[in-house]
């Protein structure tokens, strides 16, 4: 997805200068992120997304259309040739660290310490390590060691 594509399809940005706000305008609602999560977990068909999320058909139709319009999902004919399926584009796949970071935040802050929850594992079955931001010098970054420089 190019910047020109983004500008042409989403002219009413919440905050035109902020990458976080623009991203939230594209994928920041609850249902969009759950659709993206399920696409990352192998969901492809409308019915699969609906079954996994419990989302109403009209809302799911809207979210799938929006995600496809903005280049996050691609709609194509399934190998059976009878149905359409939705697959992540490169831009959609690039959201994996975002989803993993949200998941890990939820594991730390949205569950009681003794409360069961699902676990994200790698292909060998090992839990995925915590996402940590690392600076150019190899030192972990946090809100006290970063800031935003705005363009003028």
Automatic annotation (TrEMBL):
Q: Which Pfam families match?
A: HxlR (PF01638)
Q: Which InterPro entries match?
A: HTH_HxlR (IPR002577), WH-like_DNA-bd_sf (IPR036388), WH_DNA-bd_sf (IPR036390)
Looking at the keywords, is DNA-binding present?
yes
Gene3D superfamilies linked to this entry: Winged helix-like DNA-binding domain superfamily/Winged helix DNA-binding domain (1.10.10.10)
Q: Which ranges carry the HTH hxlR-type domain? A: 18-114
Is the keyword NAD assigned to this protein? no
Q: Which SUPFAM superfamilies match?
A: Winged helix' DNA-binding domain
From the UniProt annotation, give the residues forming the signal peptide: none
Q: What are the TM regions of this chain, as residue ranges? A: none
Where in this chain does the entry annotate a coiled-coil region? none
- The name of this protein is Winged helix-turn-helix transcriptional regulator
Which organism was this protein described from?
Answer: Promicromonospora aerolata
């Amino acid at each position: 997805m190019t910047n020109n594509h983004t500008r042409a399809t989403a002219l009413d940005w919440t905050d035109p200068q902020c990458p976080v706000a623009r991203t939230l305008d594209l994928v920041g609602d609850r249902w969009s992120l759950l659709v993206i999560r399920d696409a990352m977990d192998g969901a492809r068909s409308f019915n699969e997304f609906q079954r996994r999320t419990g989302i109403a058909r009209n809302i799911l139709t809207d979210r799938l259309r929006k995600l496809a319009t903005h280049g996050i999902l691609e709609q194509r004919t399934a190998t059976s040739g009878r149905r359409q399926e939705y697959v992540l584009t490169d831009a959609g796949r690039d959201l994996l660290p975002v989803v993993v970071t949200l998941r890990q935040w939820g594991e730390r802050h949205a569950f009681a310490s003794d409360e069961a929850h699902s676990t994200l594992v790698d292909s060998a079955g090992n839990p995925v390590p915590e996402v940590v931001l690392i600076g150019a010098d190899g030192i972990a970054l946090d809100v006290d060691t970063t800031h935003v420089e705005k363009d003028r």
